[in-house]
Amino acid sequence: MEIANRDFYNADAMIESSSASPPFVSTLAIVGVGLLGGSIAAAAKGRGLAGRVVGIGRDAARLEQARQRGLVDVASTEIDAAAEADLVVVCTPVNRIAADVRKVAAVCRAGTLITDVGSVKGSICRELASGLPAGIEFVGSHPLAGSEKSGFEATDPNLLEGRVCIVTIDESASVAARVRLREFWSRLGARVIEMSPEAHDHVLAETSHLPHLAAAVLASTLQDEHRPLAANGFRDSTRIAAGDANLWAAIFLANADEVEQALERYEKVWREFRQVLKTRDATALRDLLAKARDSRLKLDHRGA
Question: How far apart are CA 220 and CA 214, in angstroms?
Fold first, then answer.
């Protein structure tokens, strides 16, 4: 598949807004104040990007804790709290995002822009390509800045600094909406790339979803009696397997076709390693390991 993307990184956009200037967003609403939602809220407040931040979720007690920590200015369990928002970021699990966007869109005023942070884009963007109220636009986003941690307690106002954020190219959204969203993520410190929802899902199956699945399989192989001997290599390789099971199950199912294709490529290389071990082919084994080493060393550490 040909992957077409455009990089809109602008170092100047990472400079904090002047306190004398009006905020880029008058009212920012965050639906789902967890790790990502809380970090976006904290970054927006810290950089003077939003005049007011509204946090919306299901648990009133936890929302109030997030408000007391200064992550949001207003905490509410009612979706109506987003009615005055200029920009809404939906940070709920991928299997809930489309429905949550529609709920938000139903109470927002014309001119409101809605985005999300879901790790799968195709199914969400197709679902939201039509049927939103007049004047409300949705543009999909995916900041590649997750963690195995969860909850607003893990909030990091610098979580997006230098990280890639993908903004989807979709004919259902206006160019003006995409430009506005690119500017929002850039001002939070992200390096913005535009990509179609389908290209996003193809790439992320290999670079994010497959690694999590591989880590989960490896973690599952550890025998209890060997656990005390699990060294740093095992811990490093399985760190992401500590992520939320419900969240990741939803991601795998939403992008199942692409993940299956990525698994096929993984299994092909896996079989090559098994064969050279079986035949004790030292030269071929060194070649495979050297190829893997070279690939790892080429990684761009500004990414996720």
Answer: 10
